[in-house]
Design goal:
This protein has helices at about 1-10, 10-35, 35-45, 45-50, 55-60, 65-75, 90-100, 115-125, 165-175, 205-210, 230-235; strands spanning about 80-85, 105-110, 130-135, 150-155, 175-185, 195-200, 200-205, 220-225, 240-245. By secondary structure, it is α/β, with parallel strands linked by helices.
């Protein structure tokens, strides 16, 4: 896919025209036809269309500085006995957490079965025994009991869950979390809109969204510092959203 993009970019005007057509179709399908199921299909098959080495590429980003910010925020909830990541891919964040909290039980959920399979293999090969990865969806967490996880977090996952499912997801996270929630997502404070679709991603006003589930006094949102991301959209919208329960 990346090779095709490089080839098409030799004709910028034609490339940008195709890009506009592609995203117009993408928007229509996701917003008016299939909703979040569109993203679920994309992520279930990402290893096929993105790259056969996609899961390994995720593992190789282990040292990206945003991961250490997540670890730092999670550490504010100590003592911690259990942690869950929604949209864990191959378990990169959980690998780092397992090193830090060797006595805690860590769980990861992701919709891509290959990422889960390879993640579990990689974790076992590296001697990590306190992490379990499962195939599953963010809005289907019935296997987990009420208040069974001290901390639940996401890392660029909620941006792929549309308005048709986001409230159910938040309800499930509120049910399961005991101490707090931490989200690394795209946030925008738009007073007139709770969400917007932006090139295949959902940007939420988390102050408005989370206020439907939690006390506003327990919600804090902070922008990432400049230079943390090479991606201009992460630099513009990237935020850490924290809920203390």
């Amino acid at each position: 896919m990346s090779t095709i993009k490089v080839f098409l970019k030799k004709w910028p005007k034609f490339y940008h025209l195709l890009q506009r057509i592609y995203y117009a179709f993408y928007y229509f399908i996701e917003v008016y036809v299939f909703g979040t199921q569109t993203q679920e299909w994309i992520w279930k098959t990402r290893h096929i269309f993105k790259s056969n080495k996609w899961t390994q590429e995720c593992i190789e980003t282990r040292n990206h500085p945003h991961r250490h910010i997540l670890l730092e925020r999670i550490s504010s909830f100590v003592p911690i006995k259990s942690i869950m990541e929604i949209g864990c891919s191959s378990g990169v964040n959980l690998y780092l957490l397992a090193k830090e909290y060797s006595d805690a039980k860590l769980y990861g959920i992701d919709i891509n079965a290959k990422a889960i399979q390879e993640g579990n293999i990689s974790l076992r090969q590296q001697g990590i025994r306190n992490v379990e990865l499962f195939v599953g969806k963010a809005d289907d967490l019935e296997r987990f009991a009420d208040k069974s996880m001290d901390v639940i977090f996401t890392d660029a996952t909620l941006m792929y869950i549309g308005p048709d499912k986001i409230r159910k997801v938040m309800g499930e996270l509120r049910r399961i979390a005991c101490k707090g929630l931490i989200f690394n997502e795209w946030h925008c404070e738009n007073r007139s809109r709770e969400n917007r679709w932006y090139y295949g991603h959902w940007i939420y006003n988390y102050k408005t969204l989370l206020a439907k589930f939690f006390s506003s006094d327990n919600i804090s949102i902070s922008r990432h510092s400049e230079g943390l991301w090479d991606d201009e959209n992460w630099s513009k919208f990237g935020s850490i959203i924290e809920v203390r329960l």
